[in-house]
Amino acid sequence: MKQSVPGAAGPRCASPPSPCCWGCRCGGGRPRRTGPRCPTAGIAALGRLPLQLSVPISVVFAPGSVPADLPRQLPYRDVREEPVPVGSRSDVAARYEELYRGTTAREVAALGAATAREADAALHALQDASPGSLTVYVVPESSPLLPQGTDVYVGKHRSALLRAGQGLAALRARLQQLTWVMSLPATSIAAALADRVPDGQLGPDARRHLKSSLGYEITFSLLNPDPKSHDVDWDIEGAVGRYVQPVLDKLSVVANFSVDSQILYYAVLGVTPRFDKESSSFLLSAHSLPHVINPVEARLGSSAASLYPVLNFLLYVPERSHSPLYIQDKDGAPVPTNAFHSPRWGGIMIYNVEAPASPQASLPLHVDVDMVRVMEVFLAQLRLLFGISREELPPEFQVESPGNEGLADWELDRLLWAHTVENIATVATTLTSLAQLLDQISNIVIKDDVASEVYHAVASVQDAMAELAEGRLRSAFQASKEAVTSSERAFFDPSSPPPPLLPRRPEVCHLHPALPAHGRSHPSLPGQDPAGRPGSARRSPPK
């Protein structure tokens, strides 16, 4: 059923006799349906975005670690609230619901392990930690689990070991520091609310993280501009299975991922490198890097037809006439990884080929790419693109490597926090824009299914906010995803007013250091035959 009504609802329902375009019983006109009340009041409330983020924390004292000035006998509960500094236009508060208790007999046995890593694994097997929660085990000052100089051990799940300090005040200071590291850093929340925070209040990386999406497409491309000189062989199929797929499996709760790969021949960079006589090499300066991507992007051919954001990871083997090729940072020093990344786009790595020992060597030279070295860089770039970067920690903190999964459970939780908050903000912006567009049009047609999507989006956002306040991160994230889906269906429905076209702001390339590889895994994936005629590209189907 369609409803054609002169006039449209703005932030509030129009007072009688002006009609309401949603066809509800709000008093704005003739009743058109007996559905929910008018959503415009709910949309206006979403724009104010009052958020409370609750984090359940268990503080567990091992024998001999209980502070003498503890205010009550164990077990007891306490609540700590503090604002999250994200800007004047958003109201976000953190509520830490802390349970203080002693260890169980099985936890005591687990804490008797030889190393902190073994203790973390044993404690994880005893826990039923929900996403967004933390468990902090306080151990005696003399505990051998924490080596000299280390007061805090952050595991790869959702727990940490904390050396008992001098009294309750020192313990609480450490707990506050630990919770900001493992759960709700202001930088992640500010980045999630980047569109609502004034530019002057944002850090340099706040607008560089990937926007939240229901899916992402990852494309690995090998660029061989000189196939007459280089016959390059890369085992992208095996590398995706061993190094990338475990990370994507971990991220599957955040979004859906598809992976493909291609080889592009005669694809050159859009910048002519400078020859350096002293080092007998070619150099790409930092200021030239932003000009590298556009000419290469025209050859990739994936972004235009994609429904989701595309992450590009390019391995470039320089032509023989421009080898070796090195990237310089802004100070003129060589970048150790010989790679750079562009926020919300992807990354490029330069892979130099050793010159043949003899000038008479036959061409093309066969090149086997070291995929371990390449994937170390690409996975580091993937973390940077998603904003999964380690905070600068005090020297007394020790953080366990996440292994072949690429990110720890608590890092995944931080990503869920940020994406949930961003989804809520996105829905509020989308629905507010829709209401404003309707307010500018004198005659509008609102279909029942469009109105239903708006009702569902508002209800889902309210559910997400309620779940966040209760500390149920996973269900809050799922509700926020549903809200995004419904709001976009309503906004982009053919019967809705067309959104204005806005120019795309270009992104700037940023250099980054390499991060170490985190373990190995050996599943196999279907892939592609890397062979192809010069100038062609072969792609594997999304997985």
TrEMBL record:
Q: Which family does it belong to?
A: Belongs to the PIGS family.
| Alphabetically ordered keywords of this record | Endoplasmic reticulum, Glycoprotein, GPI-anchor biosynthesis, Membrane, Transmembrane, Transmembrane helix
Q: How does it sit in the membrane?
A: Multi-pass membrane protein
**Where are the annotated segments for Disordered?**
486-543
Q: What is this protein called?
A: Phosphatidylinositol glycan anchor biosynthesis class S
- The residues that cross the membrane are none
* Pathway note: Glycolipid biosynthesis; glycosylphosphatidylinositol-anchor biosynthesis
Coiled-coil intervals: none
Superkingdom of this entry's organism? Eukaryota
What Pfam families does the entry give? PIG-S (PF10510)
For this record, the Gene Ontology CC terms, alphabetical, are:
GPI-anchor transamidase complex
Which residues constitute the signal peptide according to the record?
none
What are the GO BP annotations of this UniProt entry? Answer: attachment of GPI anchor to protein; GPI anchor biosynthetic process
Q: Give the InterPro entries listed for this entry.
A: PtdIno-glycan_biosynth_class_S
First-listed, main subcellular location of the protein, grouped into a coarse class: endoplasmic reticulum
Compartment(s) where it occurs, according to its Swiss-Prot or TrEMBL record: Endoplasmic reticulum membrane
